[in-house]
Amino acid sequence: MSHSEYCMTKTIHASFESVIDKLKSELAKEDYGVFAEVDVQSVLASELGVNLPKTRIIGTNRPEVGYALLTADPSIGVVLPFSIIVHERLGSTGEVAAVDPVVLLQSIDHPVAHEIAPQVRNALTAAMERL
User: Fold this and answer.
1) Which of these, 4, 6, 25, 2, lies nearest to 131 by C-alpha position?
2) Among 21, 97, 111, 127, which is least packed by CB within 10 angstroms?
3) Which segments within the chain are labelled E, that is strand?
């Protein structure tokens, strides 16, 4: 797994759908649920008539994390849920990239956000490492 300035990325050698299924399973082991799922390939094909490789954005969060952040400051909801993108490369290879919650929440001047961000990073990293 590699890290950039804003996300954690892992290349997976498996079918797109199996990566999606495994990701959801691994997130569940960390008590993270799927709050949103966007089939980017279908949306852009419908809206723009373009053909992209299979691409899906998964919005994930742990209910307790969301509750703590939203009760600390309801405006923090603009960065929730935490995004993970899965896109197909070369048929049986996929890439999974998750937002780095520490980077995402560092600009929010609230101690709850600063306390929770590393916990979220650890959970997302653990789930991705098991893919």
Assistant:
1) 25
2) 111
3) 2-3, 7-12, 33-39, 55-61, 82-89, 93-99
All domains of the chain, ordered by start, with CATH?
2-129 (3.30.310.70)
pLDDT of residue 91: 67
pLDDT (tens digit, 9 = 90+) per residue, 14-34? 999 999 999 999 999 999 999
CA atoms within 13 A on the CB side of 93: 4
- Residue 117 φ/ψ, nearest 5 degrees: -50, -45
Coil/strand/helix, residue 38 = strand
Query: Rounded to whole angstroms, what are the CA distances from 36 to 4, 61, 124?
Result: 24, 10, 16
Torsion sign (Cα): 19, 38, 64, 6: positive
